Amino acid sequence: MRTGAEILIDQLILNGADTAFGVPGESYLAVLDAIHGRRERFRFVACRQEGGAAFMAEAWGKLTGRPGIAFATRGPGATNAAIGVHTAMQDSTPMILFIGQVGSGDSDREAFQEIDYRRFFSPVAKWAAQIDRADRVPEFVQRAYAVAMAGRPGPVVLALPEDMLTAEADVADGRRIEPAGAGPRPADMARLKAMLAAARRPLAILGGPGWTQSAADGVRAFLERWSLPAATSFRAKDRLDNAHPLYAGDLGIGADPKLVARVAESDLLLVVGARLDEMTTGGYERIAVPLAAQGLVHVYPDPDELNRVTRADLALCSDVAAFAAALAELSPDAPPVWAGEAQAARAAYEAFVRPVAPPGAVNPSAIFAWLRERLPQDAILTNGAGNYAGWLHRFHLHRRLGTQLAPQSGAMGYGFPAAIAAKLNAPERIVVANAGDGCFLMNGQEMATAVQYGAAVVVLVWDNGSYGTIRMHQERHYPGRVSGTDLRNPDFAALARSYGAAGFTVTATAEFAPAFEAALAAGGPALIHIVTDVEAITPATTISALRAAAR
């Protein structure tokens, strides 16, 4: 006989999980005890806020391809964790959030901290349910894994009544769940070949979930055989080596205008794995709704996503791995006519990522240009939301799959917790978190978590004393009327040191390299406080220019 809590942890271990993130709560004490009894095989990472814990679980899911696991207590804990669930949904990341729930005998009374989690999470989760019987735990966990990984991956939320967790049951374990795959039909691949052969200005767009190294290698080999230029979708730069001669840039915020023009001028778009969401399509303008101006081939693992916003000329329900395998049989019958287009696209990208000269003593573009030479190719860079991320996305080159962790949901506070999860998952790799001043302070308390668990991340806090993205929009719409966007910040380096981490301050570009080397040598978590000029609001413009243009 085992308790419901013991059965639960055994099912997670069976499915390959060895780490969960959370904030402890009295509603799932039995789970914490079950983990204690299995501490050689399963660890609980105690975080400082449930939002940070959920972000860590989401990042874990991105890195591993299997659901990241988070635990939260009822009510306030669950609502705090909701931001991570929303991010997992928007980013198509497998994740399971377990929530302690009031005892069954008190349900539907609005007991202390009680929430109907099915109703609360249903808009932002693939499945939300409650396990009422200990003998059904294997069934629910199996289904949770299957749902989280099937089709378009995403989050699952399971509520755990206190009495269910302590009840005993004699029940067999379930089985390890592997994701069900989908693949293209031979006729689909034959049609794709014909469409490519007829094209004159084709462009591939790569992104979305489910990429493995073998899939990335297969797609790259296909691009090379066809001399096909490729862009990446919003915050998916690591799907193709950014130094590859066929890489043409990313279609996120602040995309190269020449790349945007190339999308508009193309006669065939091959979209592999990416949703045609608002950010990638530039507000649904780069690829028109409901009919694209270009020929459109859309490869995606979920039939509900295909043709949902923009109708595809060829919609292939396939995961990236199966599609990449099918591409091995697809070779041109004659040399493609667009080789010159690929060269032009690459030349435009290389020009776009050359450092610029913004106002102020700190040049973020020069710093990221230095980092792309200094860091090993497997270094992981993370970020949350804010204009600082535009410098990272433009000037850093991702060389390998699994080196970018960034929220498509646009969630502030993501980068630092994600970096902690990445370092705990791969302690041998360099992990660099990027955060704006406003972004960092949303989950800066997780520095205590990083110190406690020895997650030796390097955190770059880009401090311009402003909610910069909002200030930018403010200047566009209400020039000179600054309201609510100025920030009075702490000494971030001193704050880091107060947690037991190393802290450094950079006020000029030349100071960054020695500070970064010192941060790496610190042997534990380290933070570099980089003081920037708010005037340098993006790589492409300044506050003064925005204000002048709006008047």
Structure, explained:
This protein has 551 residues and is an alpha/beta fold. It folds into 3 domains: 2-169, Rossmann fold (3-Layer(aba) Sandwich); 186-351, TPP-binding domain (Rossmann fold), CATH 3.40.50.1220; 353-550, Thiamin diphosphate (ThDP)-binding fold, Pyr/PP domains (Rossmann fold, 3-Layer(aba) Sandwich). Helices cover 38% and strands 17% of the residues. It is built from 21 helices and 20 strands. The strands form 4 sheets. The protein has a 6-stranded parallel sheet with strand order 3-2-4-5-7-6, sandwiched between helices. It has a 6-stranded parallel sheet with strand order 11-10-9-12-13-14, with helices on both faces. It has a 6-stranded parallel sheet with strand order 16-15-17-18-20-19, with helices on both faces. α1 (4-14) runs parallel beside α6 and α18 (468-477) packs parallel to α21 (543-550). It is globular.
Quick recap:
By secondary structure, the protein is α/β, with parallel strands linked by helices.
